[in-house]
Amino acid sequence: MKVPIAVLAAVLLLCTAVIEMAAADQDPPTNVSAFCKDKCAVRCSKASRQKRCLLYCGICCTKCNCVPPGTYGNKDACPCYRDLKNSKGQPKCP
């Protein structure tokens, strides 16, 4: 019984998508500094998706060494954090 190459490619693509979605829901990276962890804990304290907020805040803080004050807005206080975009051109940082 031969399996068409297109079916195998589709299964591989589906598996890759599932793995990427699972990776996006992981705990925040462990290489985030104490400064970033503390600032992101405050920034994400009211977020409905804590893990995702902490993950992206940690990434942004590590790149910019800055997190805006408060739980929402105030991004003008940290232009680097404000200007980081995802692959769709939307703001990356919470």
Describe it for me?
The longest helix is centred in the first third of the chain and has 20 residues, at 5-24. The model has no long low-confidence stretch (mean pLDDT 83). α2 (34-43) packs across α3 (50-64). This protein has one domain. It is mainly alpha-helical. It has helices at 5-24, 34-43, 50-64, 79-83. The chain is built from four helices and no strands. Residues 1-24 form the signal peptide.
Key traits:
94 residues, mainly alpha, elongated, GASA, 4 helices
Any chance you could write out the topology, listing elements then pairs?
Layout: H1 5-24, H2 34-43, H3 50-64, H4 79-83
Helix pairs in contact: 2-3
The gist of it:
InterPro entries: GASA. The chain has 94 residues and is mainly α. The chain has helices spanning 5-24, 34-43, 50-64, 79-83.
**Poorly predicted residue ranges:** none
The biggest sheet amounts to: none
Please state roughly what percent of the residues sit in beta strands, choosing from under 5%, 5-15%, 15-25%, 25-35%, 35-45% or over 45%: under 5%
Helix content: 40-55%
The count of strands amounts to 0
| Pattern of helices and strands | HHHH
Q: What is the total number of structural domains?
A: 1
Structural class: mainly alpha
For the CA atoms, what is the radius of gyration?
A: 18 Å
Average pLDDT, to the nearest integer?
83
Distance between the amino and carboxyl termini: 51 Å
Instruction: Give the overall form.
Output: elongated
> Helix count, per DSSP?
4
